[in-house]
């Protein structure tokens, strides 16, 4: 007995479908074979009637014989081996029979009125009233003239035919039973071929549910089962990777928080002890202020990420001129770029680049991108902020000629908590937040990079409708010479 489950369902459904199909074929076959046998008997009698009746009527003249002699002559000419020939009048009364036995009651089977009505041949299948034997009766109009109607009725037994049909039925049922046994065996094998991989996948998923993400679905399964196993393995790998990233993030953020807290605590204790001149006190307070701002920045980044993950980020949407916003970005980052002697240059293909968005969040996007560009640029290099319009989109490119990113890390650099250089500080959330902010503005963020050559980050935002299209201009912003930083 197959235990409850998908295996039993497969076996039962497969078995029922085959069983119903075989039963349908069996019924059609039995009806066809029965009709074949019965039609063969009928056609044989009909052929005999067609051949003999005409010749019998021509060779026999009723005026030459009395009634009994005439009917006897007809019987001797028309009789058929293994069949009883009855001559009936129009009322169905048997006038004479080839068997020699008389019939007291008129024959009332359906072939009599049918033959009389059509003037041709009719058939009836049933049981003999006196013996109960299954018979077939074929009746034809023999003579009709002078108001006198005679019918020739051939009655033949079909008991042997029915016995043969019963034998055929039993043989066919035995064949069906054999086929069903084979189907049952095959369906059980088929069910096991599906259930075993599923049980294996269930066992592996149960292990994963307990926290064992080192286990994998083994076996080269095909089709949907193979896809299910591969998906489960991929999920485990992603969980392991996410856990590793989370652990790296916790380690990194712990370090990021501990360093400024240590400085704040140290200078607070130092200043609390007193005895320092105003210059030293001012230096200490400056360090405390700087580290506090750093802590605030880390906390705000974490809060922004949390809001984005929970879809709680609220945007104040209005018209934003992207070119003016990039000017502000250049001014904000200039001091940091100056320390590395990195030049910032804004280029544009027109005067107006309006978008519909939250100015503060867009400023956060480009501040993060430009800050990263400065962080990973070589000294005395140039960072270009280029604006253009493409098919209803405002495109802003941030291009640097810094250290670049290899292909493997480029595919993961926008993942949350991921950092190419874990020693560079930060939470690894900057680009993840940036991408989600761009998507909230119905835009796209793309990155291309080559190790040792540089990186280009492209932000595409929908152009504000109804604004004039810009005309082509020189690559460098008007009023600023080439290779000159914008301040």
Question: Can you give a write-up of this model?
Answer:
The chain has 487 residues and is α+β, with helices and mostly antiparallel strands. The protein has 3 domains: 6-162, Beta-Lactamase (2-Layer Sandwich), CATH 3.30.450.20; 223-309, Signal transduction histidine kinase, dimerisation/phosphotransfer (DHp) domain (Helix Hairpins, Orthogonal Bundle), CATH 1.10.287.130; 318-462, 2-Layer Sandwich (Heat Shock Protein 90), CATH 3.30.565. It is 53% helix and 18% strand. The strands form 3 sheets. The chain has a 5-stranded antiparallel beta sheet, sandwiched between helices. Strands 7-9-10-12-11 form a 5-stranded mixed beta sheet. A hairpin with a 2-residue loop joins β9 (382-390) and β10. The protein starts with 5 loop residues before the first helix and ends in a 25-residue tail after the last strand.
Helix/sheet category: alpha+beta
- What about the largest sheet? 5 strands, antiparallel
Helix content: 40-55%
Instruction: Tell how many strands the DSSP assignment holds.
Output: 12
Total of helices: 10
Q: What does the overall shape look like?
A: rod-shaped
The stretches of 5 or more residues where confidence is low (pLDDT under 50) are 470-487
CATH architect. name of the largest domain: 2-Layer Sandwich
CATH fold field value of the largest domain? Beta-Lactamase
For the biggest β-sheet, the strand order reads 2-1-5-4-3
- How much β-strand is present in the residues? 15-25%
């Amino acid at each position: 007995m197959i235990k409850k489950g998908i295996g039993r369902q497969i076996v039962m459904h497969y078995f029922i479908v085959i069983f119903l199909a075989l039963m349908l074929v069996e019924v059609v076959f039995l009806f066809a074979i029965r009709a074949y046998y019965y039609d063969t008997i009928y056609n044989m009698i009909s052929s005999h009637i067609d051949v003999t009746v005409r010749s019998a009527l021509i060779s026999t003249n009723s005026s030459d014989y009395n009634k009994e002699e005439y009917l006897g002559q007809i019987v001797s000419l028309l009789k058929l081996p293994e069949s009883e020939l009855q001559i009936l009048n129009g009322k169905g009364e048997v006038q004479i029979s080839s068997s020699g036995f008389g019939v007291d009651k008129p024959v009332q089977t359906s072939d009599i009125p049918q033959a009389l009505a059509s003037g041709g041949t009719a058939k009836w299948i049933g049981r003999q009233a006196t013996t109960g034997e299954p018979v077939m009766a074929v009746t034809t109009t023999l003579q009709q003239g002078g108001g006198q109607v005679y019918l020739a009725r051939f009655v033949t037994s079909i008991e042997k035919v029915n016995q043969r049909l019963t034998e055929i039925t039993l043989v066919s049922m035995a064949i069906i039973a054999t086929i069903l046994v084979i189907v049952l065996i095959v369906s059980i094998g088929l069910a096991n071929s599906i259930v075993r991989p599923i049980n294996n996948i269930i066992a592996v998923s149960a292990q994963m549910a307990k926290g064992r993400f080192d286990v994998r679905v083994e076996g080269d399964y095909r089709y949907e089962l193979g896809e299910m196993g591969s998906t489960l393995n991929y999920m485990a790998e992603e969980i392991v990777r996410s856990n590793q990233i989370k652990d790296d993030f916790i380690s990194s953020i712990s370090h990021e928080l501990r360093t400024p807290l240590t400085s704040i605590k140290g200078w607070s204790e130092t200043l609390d002890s007193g005895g320092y001149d105003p210059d030293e006190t001012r230096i200490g307070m400056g360090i405390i202020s700087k580290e506090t701002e750093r802590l605030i920045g880390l906390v705000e980044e974490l809060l922004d990420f949390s809001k984005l993950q929970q879809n709680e980020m609220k945007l104040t949407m209005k018209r934003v001129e992207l070119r003016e916003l990039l000017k502000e970005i250049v001014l904000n980052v200039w001091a940091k770029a100056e320390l590395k002697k990195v030049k910032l240059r804004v280029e544009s293909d027109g005067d107006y680049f309006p978008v519909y968005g939250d100015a503060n969040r867009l400023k956060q996007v480009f501040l993060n991108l430009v800050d990263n560009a400065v962080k990973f640029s070589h000294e005395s290099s140039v960072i270009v902020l280029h604006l253009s319009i493409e098919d209803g989109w405002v495109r802003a490119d941030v291009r640097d000629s810094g250290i670049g990113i290899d292909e493997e890390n480029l595919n993961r650099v926008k993942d949350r908590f991921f950092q190419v250089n874990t020693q560079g500080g930060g939470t690894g959330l900057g680009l993840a937040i940036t991408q989600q902010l761009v998507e909230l503005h119905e835009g796209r963020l793309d990155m291309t990079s080559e190790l040792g050559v540089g990186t280009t980050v492209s932000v595409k935002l929908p152009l504000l409708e109804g604004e004039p299209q810009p005309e082509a201009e020189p690559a460098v912003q008007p009023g600023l010479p080439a290779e000159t930083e914008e301040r």
